[in-house]
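Hey, I was hoping to borrow your eyes for a little while. A protein chain has come my way and I'm curious about its shape. Take your time with it, there's no hurry, and the full record follows here:
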Amino acid sequence: MLPSVAPVSSTSAIAPPAVGLGLWKIERSDTAAMVEEAIRIGYRHLDSACDYGNEAEAGEGIRAALNAGVCRRDELWVTSKLWNTYHDPRHVRQAAERSIRDLKVDHLDLYLIHFPIALRFVPFDVRYPPGWIHDPSAERPRMEAVRVPLAETWGAIEELVLAGLVRRIGVCNYGTSLLRDLLSQAKILPSVLQVELHPLLAQEKLLRFCREERIAVTAFSPLGAPSYVPLGMARPEESLLNHPLIVATARECGRTPAQVLLRWGLQRGTSVIPKTSRRERLRENLALFDFTLSGAQMEAISSLDRGQRFNDPGVFCEAAFGTYCPIYE
């Protein structure tokens, strides 16, 4: 049991490095080389997760870069996430230790609850990563929810900090109500919230709440639709990379549309973790610190907000996994 003490930050309230490499959807065969190259050109923030299925390969890239003396381990920020099937406190440490082992590090700089969704446990030796569906061979494959209080999962994650396995802890895909509940019970406060953020989903109220509570925010899918079009979760015409305002702003700044979108995220005070499988994009996505968007440009881009969420379990879980699972309503 954790001692009864006043809540504290998880080691410190330091935010992740401003730009990171998101590892979601990078093919396993490409991951090690991409991670090693990213570190070589200056990335110090790597965003991984059990569910991405490529942590072992990411670990190969990390080890190669460290062995080559590109940087020290203490200069890297490595994030991983607790998957839905490991919410029961009995499985939290085992899940974290598996990610640490796969990533070939001795600790995680940040460990996040991936979704506020608890699913039935799948043993590690049965299937890893376990995915969303409990039994893919079932006559009617579907998710199988279990009733594990989020507070119990958080308590087990707090123990990872006390054990020295992780430096900071936080959550993904939480709104203000879940954050308020967490803050009311936590003994170690969340350092980071990671959520979908881009001009079509600006989430101004959530950002303001996190600023007031001193919770750093990391924006996933900062470019919006492109990662979701191949999955059928977004339409090509929803891509901000081709939006007239973004294209015009990029021309004014002498930058690419992607750089404008990422710079917008940085100037709002968030970290951004764009994913790319193209090496030439690695440098482009990191080259964000020698230009600034004007106040008028920021306001115009922010006005594109229409609450468009692409990564919504209330939509994709039913379509892909046979289970209705809303979490934002």
Summary: Residues 249 and 255 are 8 Å apart (CA to CA).
